[in-house]
Specification:
Length: 219
């Protein structure tokens, strides 16, 4: 009695075709037809005299489940211009599986593998690579510590220490190294500069003295 109620209830309260068996699909005229298998779609619905006629998915399309559909799914395209390549090509039963090329990491992962990729971050001068980028993670950067510099944003190198015979011509920064020079040459240049200043002062005083003396001799 309960079974009869369930069947009558299904027929009375649900739309035609919704009580089809799990491996069947409802047609537009309210019939239940056997589903097509993976890799195929419905070419013609079943009739009272024949079963469902199915056709194979064409190249570039696939069907990954038993179905009652008349169109296959379009295969995913892996765009190399956006950092993707086909790890597994599409077949009539499976979609393409995309993966990232070197220098990129995956931003969005779905059933087809990676659906969107982005280039790894390049660390700026004054920074170094803390963690290299992977196919799933971006590069992590960090500033160089004091006393170190990074010109290209890859590794930090400690500043050069000028030797005892050298002088620091330019202090180092996070981007540039210390610049050292010959301290004896600098000393000689300083002495020479000082001598030139003294000579100029003496010459100026002599010139002033001569002028004053001429003025005193003029009646």
């Amino acid at each position: 009695m309960l079974a009869v109620f369930v069947v009558l209830g299904c027929a009375a309260f649900l739309a035609p075709g919704l009580c089809c068996h799990p491996k069947e699909y409802p047609t537009t005229d309210g019939q239940c037809c056997p589903m097509c298998s993976e890799g195929t779609i419905v070419q013609r619905d079943c009739t009272s005299r024949s079963g469902t006629r199915c056709s194979r998915c064409k190249n570039g399309t696939f069907m990954n489940q038993p179905n009652g559909m008349d169109k296959c799914f379009t295969c995913t395209s892996c765009d190399s211009g956006h950092g993707l390549f086909a790890l597994h090509v599409c077949s009539d039963t499976t979609d393409t599986v995309c993966e990232v090329i070197d220098g990129y990491f995956c931003k969005d992962v779905d059933a087809t593998g990676c659906s969107a990729a982005q280039t790894h971050t390049h660390c700026a001068p004054g920074e170094r690579i803390k963690e290299p980028g992977t196919s799933r993670e971006d590069t992590q950067c960090e500033p160089c510590p004091p006393g170190f510099f990074s010109e290209h944003g890859v590794n930090c190198t400690d500043w050069t220490t000028c030797s005892g015979t050298q002088a620091t011509l330019k202090e180092g920064s996070g981007i540039t190294d210390v610049v050292c020079g010959d301290s004896s040459r600098n000393h000689d240049m300083s002495i020479l500069s000082g001598s030139l200043v003294v000579a100029l002062v003496v010459a100026l005083l002599v010139a002033i003295g001569i002028k004053v003396k001429k003025n005193e001799q003029t009646p």
